[in-house]
Amino acid sequence: MTADQLKQLIASGLVCEHIELEGDGRHWFATIVSPEFEGKRPIARHQRVYATLGERMKTDEVHALSMKTFTPGEWAAQS
Questions:
Q1: Full-model pTM
Q2: Residue 26: how many CB atoms within 10 A of its CB?
Q3: Backbone torsions φ then ψ of 27, nearest 5 degrees
Q4: Cβ contact 14:48 at 8 Å
Q5: What family does this belong to (predicted)?
Q6: Domain residue spans in the chain?
Q7: Can you tell me the distance from the alpha carbon of 5 to that of 26, in angstroms, rounded to the nearest whole number?
Q8: CATH for 3-72?
Q9: Of 1, 11, 53, 60, which residue is least crowded by CB atoms under 10 Å?
Q10: Is the pLDDT of residue 22 over 90?
């Protein structure tokens, strides 16, 4: 799977203002900014992203995905 394909999968199931991906095709690190993360704990945010990938996580199409998740306000404060 390419970074563009993974980005499209995440964006198709989650409203995102920003997505950065780095990886080797199986192991990925993502930075994701979404208003859908408002009021959610980090584990719930990660579960939300994993839900967009569905079976792809179980079939090893995406072997590993580490991520940092931010609300738009949290992301703006990073700058």
A1: 0.91
A2: 12
A3: -110, 125
A4: yes
A5: Belongs to the BolA/IbaG family.
A6: 3-72
A7: 12
A8: 3.30.300.90
A9: 60
A10: yes
